Amino acid sequence: MKHLFVVDAGVLFSNWPDKNPEYNLLTTENIMDEIHNRPSRSRAETLISIGRLKTDLPSSQSIKRTKTAAKETGDITVLSANDIELIAIALDNVEQDQQVIVVSTDIAVLNTASHLGLGILDPADRMRDRRRWGLVCPACGHIETMPPESLECPVCGTLMHRRVRNRRQLRK
Length: 172
Known about the structure:
Elements (H helix, E strand, L loop, with lengths): L2 E5 L1 H5 L2 H4 L4 E5 H5 L4 H12 L3 E4 L3 H14 L7 H15 L3 E5 L3 H9 L3 E3 L7 E8 L6 E2 L16 E9 L3
Parallel strand pairs: 1-2, 1-4, 2-3, 4-5
Antiparallel strand pairs: 6-7, 6-8
Helix pairs in contact: 5-6, 5-7
């Protein structure tokens, strides 16, 4: 069975797809809308025309699972709606017995996908470990382990910063 590579805009901006011509790629329409520069747009349209890149819409159940996982990891505060959709289409395809690998230049996307048990690939090779994030207030030192609805400190109202609660090394 061939692997399916779910890719974000950062990957489509790069020449990674050209370096891996045997890979089948999948993304979302919203990710395609992020590609504005002419060379990247042309490269993506060529991949679509030759059948190597397809777009898909995620199910609402997979979006919900992705958001839940992102809350658990603490990545929910930095993931965009497009990032969540991207991870969700990977989940949908795993449920259809596909071997799926999420390829992204975004560490939060890779972290959440890894937390969900999806295969990940970082073209820049920056992802070394899985992280769980918390929030800390730089003014009063208040710590939140789960991301609250607001990034404001509930004690003093200062904007809280993300900090690593724990790390777990990825297997290579």
